[in-house]
Amino acid sequence: MAPEIYKWFNKKFPQNFIIKNPFTGTLLIALFVFGFTILYKPLNTHASGALSYEATMGCYSFLSGIFLFLCVRILKTFRYFSDNKDWTIFKEILSVFIVLFILGVAIYLLGFLIEQSKKRWNITTFIGSVEGAFLVGIIPMAFFTVINYRYLFPESSDYEGNIARPGMEIQPPENLIQISSQLKKEELSFYPGEFIYAESDGNYVVFYLNKDNVVKKEIIRNSINNIEQQLSGIPYFLRIHRAFIVNLKKVRSKQGNTLGYLIKLAGPEFKIPVSRKNTRIFNELSALYHS
Fold first, then answer.
1. pTM of the prediction?
2. CB–CB of 282/275 below 8 Å?
3. DSSP H stretches of helix in the chain
């Protein structure tokens, strides 16, 4: 059970709109909180001594919005939260929790400016401020999370388990790839979905192709540099090592760190190294094609 839970929490997921767009997102939260409190007067909200109820809620909403905007900007300076392409369900939940907690702290601190401070310096008021932020703020935050629910289900992915992206719901037919050789009478053709990887072997390049669910090895006389140029039109074909070009859609797992990876490809236990200089581009591109 534990591995399944871990896998679920680390599933790729679109970044929350409010985190991805701090200015627009915090403005939406401020407007929502202001409108919600004016209409429903939740959680015993009340006017301050010097301001009307509407003015009090306006001050709380928009001043806490500024506080929240700064919080999100600071949050995104941390490496863990900086890359929206490497976003996961766990990061989504954690970031929402942090944002709402900071919102609660902001409301508590703003109370010292807006209301009578002598009545606020206690743990009960602090907990009440944080609780109010969660109960009201969770509505807009959760909305932008819930609208991406389809990314949690396999049927929302393109073939081979890759996360669906805008414009990819209907896959266009694949075009046949023609690989030329240094020998005039020699050529190789295959569809992108059939390509697993290619490996340099002296003056030759060995192609591993999945044709009719059977892995076949094809050898052609050429350099890996020239083959890389011929395959450059396919965005998910990447040269990850001086001797290897792989189909990122065929990657099943990786081991290692920024010094280099060892990846496993679909097929009979293909294991390919990713060189140190290619780990970053590998992470960035593979995130686009895997859930």
1. 0.51
2. no
3. 2-9, 17-20, 22-40, 53-75, 79-82, 89-114, 123-146, 224-230, 279-286
